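In the previous lecture we treated proteins in isolation. Real proteins rarely work alone, and many bind small molecules. This record shows how such a complex is specified: first the sequence, then the SMILES for retinal.
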Amino acid sequence: MPLRSSIRWLVVTPRLAVVAVGAAVAVGAALSAHPAGAGTVWRTGADPGAGLAGVVLVTSLVAGLPHGAVDIARLDGSWRRRAPIAGSYLLLSAAAVGIWLLQPLVTLLALLAVSVAHFGAADLELADAIGAAPDGRVRRFAVVVASGGLPVLLPLGLHGTAVLDVLDGLTGGRGVAVVQVCRALLPVLGVAVGLLVGDAVRRHRWHHVLDLTAVLVVFVAAAPLPAFAAYFGLWHAWRQTGLMIDADARALGVGHRTAGARLLRQAALPSLVGIAAVAVLAVVGDRTVLVWSLAAVLSLTVPHAALTGWITHRRGRRPSHTRSVSTGPTLRRQGGSPGGATDLRDFLGSTTRTGAPSDATMTAIRPPRSTVEGTTP
Ligand SMILES: CC1=C(/C=C/C(C)=C/C=C/C(C)=C/C=O)C(C)(C)CCC1
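The predicted 3D structure, ligand included, written as C-alpha cells:
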C-alpha cells in the first residue's frame, strides 16, 4: 500500500468525497448567490458584501501559503548552502516579471499553461501515489489536462469577463484575448474531463467522479476569484500538504502528527510574512494590488516548478539502491516501522513514474542530515 491509511482516508475515501461535494456545493452556491460572488471584490474590509469572499480568501491563504512557503525551508543543508538556491529562486521569478513587463499577453498565457501543468501534474502524482492513476499515456495526459485545466480554463473561459479589469491589468489591456483563448480551449477540457470521468466510472471509482464534479460545480457556480481561492486552499494546497506530511513521516520514521508539526514549524515564518504582506496590501491597496499579487504568485510558480523539476531530475539520476541504502538505515535507527524503507521505495517508485513536480517527495528524497552528509549535492 503506497500511502498510509490516514492519508488515504484524507484524500480518497468516498466518505470524504461526499463531505467535500456537500461543502463545495454549499460554498459555490453561497458564493454565487452572494454579492461577493460577482467577483468584483478585493478590499474585503471596505465592502459590506465582501465578508464571505474575505473568509474564503483568508482560508485559502492560510491553507495555501504553507505549501509553497516551504520550498526553500525543506531543502537540505545549512542556510549558507540554501542561500544561493533561494537567490536563484527569487531571480527566476524576477526574470519572469521582467519578461512579463516586455511581453505581458504572451507571458500571462505561458504562465497559465505552466499553472495547468502544475495543478495537473500534482493531481497525477497524487493519483499515482494512491494507486488510482489510469493506465496508458493518453489517459494519464487527460488527468493532467482535466485536473489542471478545470481550475484555470473554466474560471477564465466561462467567467473571465467578471475579472476583465484584472486581466487587462495583467496584459496591458488585452484581457479579452486571454478570455478568448481560454474559451477556445474549453472543448479540449471537456474531452479530457469526459475521458477521465469515463475511466473513473468504468473502474467504479465513484469518489473521483464526485471529486471532479465538486471542482466543476465550484468553478461553474462561483465567480473566478473566490472559486480559485477555494480550489487553491481546499483542494490543491490541502492535498499537497497531506502528501508532504506523509512523505516526511516515512522519511523520518515518525507519526503524521509529528511530521505535521515539523512542517508547520518550517512553514510558519515564510507563511506569516506572506499572510502579513497580503493583509497589509489588502487594507491599504486597491485593485492594482490584486493585479500585482497575482503577477507575483504566477511568477513564483516558475521557480517553484523549476525547483521541483530539478529535485525530480536529481532523484531520477540517483540509482535506486543509493536511495534505499541512504534512507533505510535512517528509518531503522530512528525507530521507523519495520518495512519502512520498502514503503518509501514503493512511494518513490510510484511517483517517479509521473515525472511530475514533486513537492511531496522533497523530503522523501532527502534523508535526515546525519546520515547523508556528503551524499547530497
Ligand atoms: C489570472 C487570473 C486567475 C488565475 C490565476 C492562476 C492560474 C494562478 C496560479 C497559481 C499557481 C499555479 C500557484 C502554485 O502553487 C484567476 C484567479 C482564476 C482569476 C483572476 C485572474
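Summary for your notes: The CA atoms of residues 144 and 305 lie 15 Å apart. Residues 5-372 form one domain.
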